[in-house]
Specification:
about 75% helix; about 180 residues
Amino acid sequence: MSVHDVLRAVEDLRAADRPADSLAKAVRRTLRSPRVDRAVRGSWLGHPLHPLMVTVPIGAWTSAAVFDARPGGEDAARELTALGLVAAVPTILLGLADYSRLDRRQRRVGVVHALANTAAVSCFAASYALRRRGRPGAGKVLSLAGLAAVGAGGALGGHLSYAQGGGVHRWQAPREV
């Protein structure tokens, strides 16, 4: 089974429907103001904000791994791990706003994407806590696990965006002819 086959199989994961639908409804209720909804989904920019924001936590965590590989890089790795965690909060919120407008098959992929990234954030949070307690070795191991999880989440997000066309043209204001 290829990676593409696995990603396509997630589209058929009917067990995800109930939690995926509940999450979408909850987000829509929270963003009931059309002005707020359009703003957080990036209509003023013409495309979603979530893909722009994901570069910050991913970049921070990848850079932390580079510093982990260098002697004396523990402090920088810890700070970059923290930066990624702080940046993850608005990234998640923007992703949820986008998620609320997806169709059923896209929501299936989106909810698994969110679960993978929740695992990643959990690994990085635990990594940060261990690093603060003077256990950088264990922190490095959890960071690597977090990178693996964020890689899986990224593959799912890429599939959602590029293979499924999630959100394509949904953020643009209608053009006058």
